[in-house]
Design a protein that fits this description.
- The protein is an alpha/beta fold and about 325 residues long.
- The protein folds into 2 domains: about 250 residues, 3-Layer(aba) Sandwich (Rossmann fold); about 70 residues, no CATH class.
- It has 12 helices and 12 strands.
- The strands form 2 sheets. An 8-stranded mixed beta sheet has the order 6-7-8-3-9-10-12-11, sandwiched between helices. A 4-stranded antiparallel beta sheet has the order 2-1-4-5, with helices on one face.
- β7, α7 and β8 form a beta-alpha-beta unit.
- α3 crosses α4 and α4 crosses α6.
Amino acid sequence: MSLLTVEGLRTHFISRDIDNRIRTAHALNDVSFSIDRGRILGIVGETGAGKSLTAQSITGLLRPPARVVGGKAMFNGRDLTAMDDDALNRVRGAEIAMVVQNPRTSLDPLTRLGDQLVRIHQVHSGGPVAASRKRAIEMMEAVGIPDPQRRAQAWPHELSGGMAQRVLIAMALMNAPKLLIADEPTTGLDVTVQAQILDLLRDLVARLDMATMLITHDLGVVAHFCDEVAVMFAGAIVERGPVREVFRHPAHPYTRGLIAATPERLRSGGAATFGGPPPDLYDLPEGCHFRPRCPFARAACRQSPTERETTPGHLALCHFAGAFDTATEATTEPAE
């Protein structure tokens, strides 16, 4: 059984306009996926696709006017979406940990690094403070921080971006979580440091047998560091499956466009991409939400698609999943 199984998750932003009429943004629409222990799931998609919102919905970190209105997130046999705040607080930081893209906003600038790690451990695990300090040094050493005894006495402003991110990873691992959520963990770091951080995460996932959700814009990161991938568009997962299979045989037009837009494909004269603005979540297109931007759209696409399995474990939310070629493009419904 998977450690985390998300089924039909729906999150809405419900507010009122200037005329006091209720407006609803369908921010997540029937999101489903699962993650096993020791595996890394990469979630990719353009800005506003719902990647970070998915993580926030699962962990109960939504703020009004956002709310989960349907579906469930089964974690180790418990539905996270049905838990109250107290129960979620006991899970977050202990069984589920997060690493965010900007460690500067997550580290307390007025507290030494070692004390911050000790505090995290004490909140969830308790026990003697001396044991927590020993754990903090062990974790700093595990994430490759040199001279951890001395670094534990340092202040956050004394660290480079890469070193601060390592501290944040150490903080996330203090209570040996079962699930790690890493939201753009290498944004703002140079390429060499990015590779070091991602290598570190992959090694820790294998050694600690954690399940990991890696949220990123970078398809290269997914290709090299993830086991499975979920591609999001307009609050829905439009394609998911093993990384190698999805990248070699993309079954959804949006995934094809993302891959074609990578710098390597563009430099080598790859296929043209098809861009456009994200859809209005308050007024989503009827049927397939990607239809107005899809060069393969047909009349059938005015009906909502269901997931189709093209090969075992490889699914796409498209009426014609995987059935695209140059002949198809010439017979399609014009883009709107």
